[in-house]
Input
Amino acid sequence: MPLPSPPIERAKPLLGTIVRIRVDGLPSALANEVISGAFDRVAEIHRLMSFHEPQSELTRVNCEAACYPVPVSPHTYAVLSHALELAEASTGLFDPTIAPALVRDGLLPALAGEPPASDASWKDVALSPDGTVAYGKPLWLDLGGIAKGYAVDCAFDYIASHRPDRIYVEAGGDLRLSGPQPEPVYLAAPYREGAVPAVMIENASVASSGSQWLCDEIRSPQLASAHIDPRTGHYCRLDRFVTVVAPRCMDADALTKVVMAAGTASAPILDRYQALAFMLDGAGWTSLGANAPTGAAA
Amino acid sequence: MKAQFLLIPAAAIVCVATPAYAKVYLSLEQAQQLMFPGATFAQQTLTLTDDQARAIEKASGTDVRNRQVQLWKVSTGGWFIADQVVGKHDFIPIAVGLDDSGAVKSIEILEYREAFGEQVRNPQWLAQFQGKRNGATLTLTKDIQNISGATLSSKHITDGVRRLLATYAIAIASH
Output
């Protein structure tokens, strides 16, 4: 019997955050090669879809797509089409075109060129089967969270093709893991009544959103939540903590925004993506989605 | 996919305090071999002069806190530099590999102690995790990125790499 290989874990600065990858059950040389390959995939998504990089494909789309259709890579096309599908499914609760509000409030930098139309929404983004994207009016897409989740998924899928025992990929709070048994993921929610909130997950993705802890960091209650309810243009209520568990990390990340905005009304869309949400607000913890209230999903 | 929500009584979590959740990813030697497989590494002594430090600060817009550069010349070409940048609560040791031309070949974070982010300041919040099992996972709220699209730690790493590239141009390339 060969000795079991120790888990290999590495971290790199990517996607504007620290990306961590751990692989168990592969020989260490192979594990390192696979982890390097996974980081390369994350870096590629970052290069394509960063709102902040002047050279990114997304920046070119934001600057040009209101004038003519812009061809995009299969990765960007996949994320955009998923973002638009989610926007439609959530009737705009998830809307990747809300960047103007974030720019207005100093949470995103302004781009060069024509400012977005104040009434622009996801409905003004047209994807064509020929692989191009066109805007019906000037607007700025920000794929931030959903692209981060997609990058985690791409890294995960690449690693999974090498069949290790366990996989852990995390990018700034977006997490996807797989392994032979359920693992506890503790939630950084406010402490209540002597109990620690956790989800036991197996082969799933997790993303969480909440606000109160961020106030300390950016010292502005008004800016403490970067979650804007697209229906009102206002920031979501600040006293809500949401964790979403979904098969894909891209969905987990995007759905936190929907639950932050809609609360219990988001159950149908969670079901559609086979997702579960655990929400803490003034009424305590609520389970939403596929198998609520037990929260145990097949 | 399986998921189950639990509220675990804090008292049921056995106490093995690892509050800052330090994680060592790579030793210097491991990082060297990852970036330059099969190469040998000759450590160089490099102490920046006042003029060099000033020039690096000017070129990179980043403070030079340590005049001593941890530098290795790589037998197969290129350079390996070990450095530290300021994280939110602690230093983050990083390694940067440069190719022959001085371009970044690879960046690795060697250790990271900040998984808890801002929450470490809240003793009550922290107390609930003091027994966190080794290897257990903590999900934080998605981290907030500032206007440059980066968290503080990742921005400091980017700044540090810029400083090392300036260090290369000013003090190493002519070596």
